[in-house]
Amino acid sequence: MKQYIVDAFTSEPFSGNPAAVCVMEEWPSEESMMKLAMENNLSETAFIVKEDKGYHLRWFTPGTEVELCGHATLASAYVILNYYEPESKVVQFNTLSGTLTVTRKDNLYEMDFPTYDLKEIPVTDDMERAFGVRPVKAVLGLDLVCVFEKEEQVREMDPDQAMLMKIEGRLQNATALGRESDCVSRSFAPKLAIAEDPVCGSAHCQIADYWSTVLGKMGIHAYQASKRGGHLYCEMLGNGRMSISGEAALVAISDIKAELI
Predict the structure, then answer these.
(1) Among 44, 151, 196, 247, the one annotated catalytic
(2) N or C, which terminus of the chain has less Cβ within 10 Å?
């Protein structure tokens, strides 16, 4: 079985968000996929099987299967459109979040994703302890999104501190207005056994949607301010959908020799 390591939301290897992508003829057991995800120890390992229409795509963190992952979807599209269907411009994935379509546009891979209803919730002392600074606002959708007064507060957060506080939400996202982009963000995932997700596409289904409303802009240029860093280009499409675009860079192609049963 081939496994590809692809850095998503970047044009440079060793930046952005790394994902492992495994292209298979048939499904191994969930236990085997979980073991490989733990062995890779990346924020996401994607597993792909060809179907009559498109591909079936599943995502595993080192701790669990998840229902949506942006960067591993981008990485999966990069692999399919460069190594399996290089003549194609579009690939469809059947996932736990429905059908996801990715379109190659020059160096960018544009993903059609759902948005989520965001409900404002009270700011709590646990949030302040997790992030090291008190948010000015908190909203909850698929994930928790905390809004901060200053960009520097987001950039200086400690992921080890955030790991100690498993507060509401699959991911704990911190965001603020940016100086050179519309917003800057960080994503911490203690419930998924991930200290920090370097660049999180699914989180921006909420982060970009939030800032689109606040700023009155349909297009949002987002920067994830982790150590690796990455750029996301988000466009509100209406009808509960948005596009998230980014580049990708190949790091490695390997053969998995261990038997997956």
Answers:
(1) 44
(2) C
